[in-house]
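Render this sequence as a predicted structure.
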Amino acid sequence: MDDRKKDQSIQSHANFDGDSATGDRTQIRQDQQNQQPPQIDPSLADAQAVAASLGVDPNTGLSQAEAERRLAQYGPNELASAPPVPKWKKFLAQFKDPLVYLLLAATGISLIAWFIEKANAAPGAEGGEILPFDAIVIVLILIVNAVLGYIQESKAEEAVEALSQMTAPQTNVLRDGKIARINTVDVVPGDMVVLGEGDSIPADGRLLAAASLRVAEASLTGESVPVGKNVDTLAEAKALGDRANMVFNGTSVTQGTGRAIVTSTGMRTQVGKIADLLQATDDDDSPLQKEMNYVSKILGIAVCIIAAVVLVALALTEGFNDIHDVIDSLLLSVSLAVAAVPEGLAAILTVVLALGVRRMAEHHAIVKKLHSVETLGSASVICSDKTGTLTRNEMTVERVVTPSGEVQLTGTGYAPEGRMIAIPDAGLTSTPSPAQEAAQLEAVATLAVGALANDGELRENTGAGDGSAASDITWEAVGDPTEVSLIVAARKVKADRKYANYTRIGEIPFTSDRKRMAVVAQDNADAGRLTVFAKGAPDVLLGYCSRIAVNGAVRPMTQGDRQQILAAVERLSAEAYRTLGQACRPLGTASLADVPGVAINAAGHVVDIAEQSDVLENDLIWVGMVGIIDPPRTEVRDSVAEAHRAGIRTVMITGDHPLTAARIASDLGIIDATGAADLGSTVLTGTQLDELPDEAAFDNATRNISVYARVAPEHKLKIVESLQRQGNIVAMTGDGVNDAPAVKTADIGVAMGITGTEVTKQSAKMILADDNFSTIVEAVREGRGIFDNIRKFLRYLLSSNVGEVFTVFGGVMLAGFLGITQPGSQGVTVPLLATQLLWINLLTDAAPALAMGVDPSTDDVMARKPRKLTDRVIDGQMWGDIIFIGIIMAAVTLIGMDMHLAGGLFTDRSVDAVGHDAQMTEARTMGFTILVFAQMLNALCSRSHDQSVFVGLFANKWLWGAIALSTLLQLAVVYVPFLNTAFGTVPLSAGAWVECLGLAMIVLVASELRKCVLRAMHRR
């Protein structure tokens, strides 16, 4: 099979091993995928029959050992991709650059010139150089540059790969009877996948359970509206979009819950069958990349113009007398091009960004793409959810309010350790009154309802010890922390004993629109009689309650009862508690079919109860409500203050009560205490946002309000768009699937790494591994520092290269004036050889520029206003720096050369005794060395536009190491004999070194004087 057909075969049938570098291992993946078990069409088979064909018990799932065996047999759950690019191709790709082509052309011209010179040498005379040293050196430097580029690119790829491993998607599966969260790549045929709102579906599967399950299948079928799912067996084969009992790889759950048995993984899924259509497309160039392309274009045009001017001027003044003049002129043009463009810029930029992204990852901020770093430093508004980001996401039930009174629970966190304390009424003794005793009993019932109407799980994990010590046991919250807090509270007061006999038979799931959930459970200790247990926002749930349970008796709810409950909600919310109401309704029967109003389908089965909330969620009995506290993170207040100092506004967007939102916002410094007391001027609700008449009014509201409560996901999107219309660069956090549009629309979408859904993570540009707001602020600081460092090495690289261009241009145009050419001589004499310019670029570009890429951030990095995306990376100020330093650098270089040439302005007359060729070699060595040391000093100067070089002079040890390395290499070029031959240099005397260092220091002095003037102008 030829390579093309083999690639096609791999893409059509095999999984791709991301670590594979050979065709053999890829073929193994192909063979594994082809070994997947043959099956009947699962959509046409009963779910239990599908489970039996795959050898799995739906109640317990696969065992871990069996899952590992199947993973080894069938291979990882991955889509095939193109085979990895061989290393030799990656290396050759380093030569695919217009500049390299230009240098290769220069190499060819040098070889031609050397051959002509050898051929035209007089008999018996020396035929010039023994070897074409110019051509050899250019080729060697190209190879070295390619090796450096290859190494840098490999390191960048490793960094990105490491980050992708950190953000690998995960899936909940049932194994050994317990829900486990595993990497999606490890899912195997027969796995029982547990699905919830916001999950990405990891493989194709047959549904075994579904509660109000809706799946977005636009990526597979093109259907824009989420599709309702059920477990009913199809009577006949249908198109993908109509297979309501199937879920497919690559789609996502938008609502409800469910369980599915995996029928196909990897390339055997429906997505795998069309894998050729899913090949990644090239990303658009980032703003920084576009800026670099623009700079390269400007430099290229400038070099062409300069070269044309020089060639025309030479042609008019001296003419081209022979082939040597033409070749010299072409080499001059090549020298100008080599001098103008920093060869290693792209590789250096990639490495600096990769190093920055890696540093961010160490601070728990995982940036998915390198160029996203540019935007981070520009953020002007951070829109953050409250729960888990500004707070700890360790929800704890502290208060239980019932019709008879109120109790307090001790203990924090997820360990079910604590007790219930009666809250005495004013004027009473600490001995509980009959009403308080009734309140305690009602509190137990309230927590039992909350634990039953619940999708969370409290998992006990035993540590390395034998489990006998309390320190050996840890408690893990699986699911929504709010729901788990109810389970913890129920365990504290032994309420779990009240629901031990209940078995859930159906669910009406919570959605952001409904703001409530309900379950139907049967009491196995009471002939299987059914009861509806519900929980939700108290103000919402009250609307469905007509009765109330007081002191063990149920009576009709009065208006006074409602007002008392709502007053308690306001009171608890003002104390920063999140409130949840609990209610129930005994159905008085063991069969849902006997409940009045419940719909029955043609087959005589009860229609999915999730679609019958209007029948089941009414005439509820109010039991009580809980007050849940999620304490603010102690470090967030400082981060909010730091963001404010940096000109970044913090906006809180939450679904909680306005009073709760205002209290937390006040504690964190988002609004002041006065604002917390005056909700009307500091907090807007989703309802109030909906009432705004037009876009202008909406924009005016978001311009002044920083706290939003009781908002739906669509409000988040509108808030982001409004802030962007005002010219803000918006960072938006999100975790739920409905947050994905707002996260994707934001300039910096931030997903929660712990609580975030896979859909939101895929939409985001950055993932918070610790779900902490402070991490966002730290990432902004890091992003600003990275952007500053990019500007530093761009200022350095471009000013150094402009200095080289001015040196070559000035040396040619003023050759006679400076003594570079002698009266009566013909042809072109370049002040510096192309090999010397390449050596300078190799020395001064890579090491110091990389060192500047890790320069420590300045103290004022978070004291500046955010940068606008419309601001140029290389602005007018920087171009001023670049041109000023370039002119100074060229001037001192040409002066140094002039001092060693007869006939110049500053000539040492002792050189008259030496021939012009020898003078030119020594002068070039002087200019070569002066330019190198001038650029080393320029590296120190380029660390700031206006700050003195002596501020933090030794803060960057890597930069000093780079300067020391460059100094040693330059000494080698000057004093090692074979390098003298290769680069056209001669050893310099001690006096010449004093001249070199003295002239190079002028660059630093001139830069310091200019900065003094700039600082004086800024103070005015």
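Summary. The chain has four domains: 45-276, 287-341+794-1019, 379-391+632-771, 396-424+433-460+474-629. The two ends are 76 Å apart (CA to CA).
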